[in-house]
């Protein structure tokens, strides 16, 4: 049962993401992700500028002047949101937690999908697959999906991206548009990522917080791992420690970049102190130009 505060928060978020999807991304999502084919609908008289390859010669011969075939895109697509709900997403030092950022990105993509009559579903995972929400159409379905993302408490706070991808590859048989939304603080998922990329149109959206890249100098501090619960006391005044921290974060980012490059997958970075719309618009623009 949702509390009144939770309900108000989700409703506010629901209207915000729906408005942004309608106002900012009109046509961009549709251009970036095309249907799987064209369907013949009718013939009409040739007009200057029409592609001569679409002329229907049988009909043209019958009427004595040119007619062209008209096709419409077979639009209905399936969008799957692969959502990492592990404990590391309960962190944020700027405007929001990474879990809230994940919900915002997922909600935006879900609304874009239903605007063009596509189905949208989700796989919620941590160190295991927590829940599968089958793809459906309609605003009511998106509302249900957003509520699940905001309120679902995973059984385990750990992360296993490989298990999420393995489940996707096993359960989603038909071609789909897939967005893996995670802070990607995990390794060992290159194999299933490559399989998913060959079967689906896959994009990795990496979430991060500025404080994860550079450890601030705040003296002695206790740091707690939200996934293991382990607590350590560190001296953040140590230049050596801060340097090792930066090097470790950069190495992890480099490994992820190399993994997605090898798989031929788009990588989008979104931070808790930045815009959600900007990176998504750039992604859609890149994909449209490639097409």
Question: In a few lines, what is going on in this structure?
Answer:
With 291 residues, the chain is an alpha/beta fold.
Describe it.
Among the domains are: 38-73, no CATH class; 75-212 and 264-290, von Willebrand factor, type A domain (Rossmann fold). It has helices at 4-24, 28-32, 57-63, 98-115, 139-151, 161-171, 190-199, 210-213, 239-263, 277-290; strands at 38-45, 67-73, 78-84, 119-125, 129-136, 177-182, 201-208, 220-224, 231-235, 266-271. The chain contains ten helices and ten strands. It has 291 residues and is of the alpha/beta class. A six-stranded mixed beta sheet has the order 5-4-3-6-7-10, with helices on both faces. The model has no long low-confidence stretch (mean pLDDT 87). Strand 8 and strand 9 form a beta hairpin. The radius of gyration is 23 Å and the shape is elongated.
Write the layout of secondary structure elements.
Layout: H1 4-24, H2 28-32, E1 38-45, H3 57-63, E2 67-73, E3 78-84, H4 98-115, E4 119-125, E5 129-136, H5 139-151, H6 161-171, E6 177-182, H7 190-199, E7 201-208, H8 210-213, E8 220-224, E9 231-235, H9 239-263, E10 266-271, H10 277-290
Parallel strand pairs: 3-4, 3-6, 6-7, 7-10
Antiparallel strand pairs: 1-2, 4-5, 8-9
Helix pairs in contact: 1-4, 4-5, 6-7, 7-9
According to CATH, the homologous superfamily of the domain at 75-212 and 264-290 is von Willebrand factor, type A domain
Straight-line N-to-C gap: 45 Å
CATH domain fold name of the domain at 75-212 and 264-290: Rossmann fold
Write down the Rg: 23 Å
CATH class of the domain at 75-212 and 264-290: Alpha Beta
Give the overall form.
elongated
Which structural class matches the secondary elements? alpha/beta
Mean of all residue-level pLDDT scores: 87
List the secondary-structure elements in sequence, H or E. Answer: HHEHEEHEEHHEHEHEEHEH
Assign a percent range to the helix content: 40-55%
| Name given to the CATH architecture of the domain at 75-212 and 264-290 | 3-Layer(aba) Sandwich
Number of helical regions: 10
Strand proportion: 15-25%
Low-confidence region ranges:
none
Number of strands: 10
Strand order of the largest sheet: 5-4-3-6-7-10
């Amino acid at each position: 049962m949702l509390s009144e505060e939770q309900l108000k928060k989700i409703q506010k978020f629901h209207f915000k993401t729906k408005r942004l999807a309608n106002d900012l991304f009109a046509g961009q999502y549709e251009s970036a992700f095309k249907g799987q084919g064209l369907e013949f609908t009718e013939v009409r008289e040739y007009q200057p500028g029409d592609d001569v390859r679409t002329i229907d010669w049988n009909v043209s011969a019958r009427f004595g002047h040119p007619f062209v075939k008209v096709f419409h895109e077979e639009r209905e697509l399936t969008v799957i949101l692969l959502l990492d709900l592990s404990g590391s997403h309960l962190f944020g030092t700027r405007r929001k937690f990474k879990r809230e950022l994940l919900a915002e990105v997922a909600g935006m993509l879900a609304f874009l999908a239903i605007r063009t009559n596509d189905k949208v579903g989700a796989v919620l995972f941590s160190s295991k697959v927590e829940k599968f929400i089958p793809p459906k159409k309609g605003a009511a379905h998106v509302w249900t999906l957003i509520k699940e993302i905001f309120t679902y408490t995973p059984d385990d706070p750990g992360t296993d991206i490989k298990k999420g991808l393995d489940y996707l590859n096993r359960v989603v048989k038909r071609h789909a548009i897939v967005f893996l939304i995670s802070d990607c603080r995990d390794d060992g998922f290159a194999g299933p990522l490559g399989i998913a990329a060959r079967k689906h149109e896959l994009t990795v959206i990496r979430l991060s917080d500025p404080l994860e890249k550079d450890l601030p100098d705040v003296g002695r501090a206790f740091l707690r791992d939200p996934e293991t619960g382990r607590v350590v006391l560190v001296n953040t005044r140590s230049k050596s420690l801060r340097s090792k921290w930066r090097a470790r974060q950069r190495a992890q980012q480099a490994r992820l970049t190399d993994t997605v490059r090898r798989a031929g997958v788009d990588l989008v970075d979104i931070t808790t102190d930045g815009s959600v719309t900007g990176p998504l618009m750039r992604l859609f623009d890149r994909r449209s130009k490639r097409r």
